[in-house]
Specification:
233 residues; two-stranded antiparallel sheet; Spore Coat Polysaccharide Biosynthesis Protein SpsA, Chain A
């Protein structure tokens, strides 16, 4: 509980995926990505409930065995074009609100960012509890925007007008990119259909790149395996 409000970890895990078939059940270090997300949520003392939103029977079975509740996601919210925010709204309307959760503090944990830690998630919860409407994890941008280009009719030009891409790395302005490691936000934010997960007064928790890797391809899984072995050593 945070300020007498329940803390609910939501893990979206639909059955379909193209880059890696059955990606949420892919294994990293012998454990599925789904089980890793559930395990991290269970290690955060403030988390009261862990709910996996899925349309898939096997994913539901694995999630229950790992200690999570199940939200049965309708097929219309489990297509390639479906937005996670709509599945979260449905979960809140059908599962959380009837249970009297009120303005719960919600934590979104995507299975595809498996190297985050419970401390990373706890920092997001604590940051939101201290103020603001939403919190997200960020990491240093892999490519600084000042070094990005656009090409129009075969002619390159600076992506950021007036940027100097030739500056030494140490002199470039700091730049960050959003990661999928963790989001924290209030349930009441989503009552306005115009709002996304990040709305209003948004705060940031900065993570190192090695805990921010998002799994999208088989190559990403190999990189994650190498990082996991390194961290275990």
């Amino acid at each position: 509980m945070i300020a007498s409000r329940p803390v609910v970890a939501i893990i979206p895990a639909r059955g379909g995926s193209k880059g890696i078939p059955r990606k949420n059940l892919a294994r990293l270090g012998g454990v599925t990505l789904l089980e890793r997300a559930i395990a991290v949520a269970r290690e955060v003392p403030a988390v009261d409930r862990i709910v996996v939103s899925t349309d898939d029977a096997e994913i539901a079975r694995v999630a229950r065995a790992a200690g999570a509740e199940i939200h049965e996601r309708p097929p219309r919210l489990a297509t390639d074009a479906s937005k996670v925010i709509e599945a979260i709204r449905h979960l809140c309307d059908t599962l959380l609100d009837p249970s009297g959760a009120g303005n719960a503090l919600l934590v979104l944990l995507e299975p595809t960012c498996p190297l985050r830690t419970a401390l990373d998630v706890a920092r997001c919860v604590e940051t939101l509890a201290a103020g603001g409407d939403a919190v997200a994890t960020f990491t240093a941008a892999a490519t600084n925007p000042w070094r990005a280009w656009r090409i129009t009719d075969g002619r390159p030009e600076h992506f950021v007008a007036g940027a100097n891409p030739w500056l030494p790395r140490q002199q470039l302005p700091p730049a960050y990119e959003l990661t999928g490691a963790a989001y924290a936000f209030w349930r009441d934010n989503l009552r306005d259909p115009r709002n996304e997960v990040l709305c209003g007064d948004v705060r940031a928790v900065i993570l190192p790149p090695e805990r921010s890797l998002d799994i999208d391809t088989v190559r990403d899984l190999h990189v994650a395996e190498a990082l996991l072995k390194e961290s275990n050593r």
